[in-house]
Amino acid sequence: MTVSRSVLSRPLTSRGAATRHRIVEVAARLMYAGGVEATSLDDVCAGAKVSKSQLYHYFSDKEALVREVIAAQTERVLAAQEPSIGKLDSRAALRTWADAILALNRATPAGCPLGSLASELANQSEGTRAQLVAGFDAWAERLTRGFSVMQTRGELSPSASPRDLATAVLAAVQGGLLLAKTTHSAAPLALALDMALEHVDAHRRVRNRRSGRSHAQRG
Known about the structure:
Blueprint: H1 14-34, H2 41-48, H3 52-58, H4 62-80, H5 91-107, H6 113-121, H7 126-152, H8 162-183, H9 187-218
Helix pairs in contact: 1-2, 1-4, 4-7, 5-9, 6-7, 7-8, 8-9
């Protein structure tokens, strides 16, 4: 993840690290609740109980702070899915993960912290967009690893692309979360997750049908 330029050459004391962490956490909470544009640096300073000069000691500008918020929210999103996201190497594990996503949405229906940032910032600076891409890539990589294991074990067709499957599933999750947030209902997310798992199953069924024909021909 990209870190703020303002701190690259400046080692932090434990107290400084704690202050910097508090600023990022307050900024993340405010930006999640009200949006990045509506969250001023004065708001962050008041919430974190720091002066403006202290904030600029750790972050060169608002964009630098926003990048750190993206990194923090990426870590939060992935951590919230543990341990299920670390074991996505079977159909049963995928279902467990999907159920965990649904449970998270019911507990926090305000939408995906990373997706919310992307919807507001994707067309902003290239550096911010790249940080968002890195966040989604980190999420997709967890899914890709699981699909690669399934393919190695012969559970997915050799023609399937683990990365493409991961992208499709993640796109379904994000779309479902957006509709769930808008409609105040988990139903769109549940439907999107079911559709995503059916998409994965289609690649398993293709393999099984070919295997069946192969056995019939040998018989």
